[in-house]
Please model this.
Amino acid sequence: MAIRNQADGTLDLNEIAANIRGDNEHYPVTKLICIENTQNSCGGTVLPVAYMDAAGDLAHDNGLKLHVDGARLWNAAVALGVSPARLVRNADSVSVCLSKGLAAPVGSVVVGDAPFIQRARRMRKVVGGGLRQAGILAAAGIVAVNDMVERLTDDHANAKRLAEGLAQLEGIAIDPAATETNLVFFELTRDDMTPAHLVNGLAAHGVKLNAAGGRRLRAVLNYHVTAEDVDRVLAAFRTTLLEGAHLNGKKVVAYG
Model:
């Protein structure tokens, strides 16, 4: 059962508890609670340690497992000033991404106790998963974990810089205080411009942006984006908004 996130990215634990299903033949039996940290759709918000612990306690008190989608777990850990291990101490399994902010070219890892990993390996084999000669990917992953974590603070600072700059632009609605990590969500409020116009206009200036749905857009800061790049992005926003995204018929494809 899907439970709606609250504005801070958390799931209401009382609502979760109220929707735990027992052994009733008419319904699926609840076995697992899944949470995401950082919470992508809520703007990259960080779920604090106390909440993570409480979610694990709720799961275990009801005979359930807790899985954490930690695609950006290191961003959450850096923002909170704690280790990733402490943040997911009460979880039964965690998936983490070595690309994203850690800048590895590819790679995700699932983490759990030995019996869980043994079963995961078998399930991977059952569905045909596997990769030989994967040392080059493992090497990139090791660099990501060992050398790229502390620099995530730069991404967070650049994201805040971008959010604060966007807040000064007419036609853009954003609360910079809501930008906690490297994701910047904002709304296009101009009636004479669609998100597609804005995305294409920015692409013409070398800025790739993702339309997140409706008039909401998302920008992601990463290893390859510097503070100087943020200033250039803001300049591109000003120009595009001023021009009204007139591309003289040129079609530009933007990637998010």
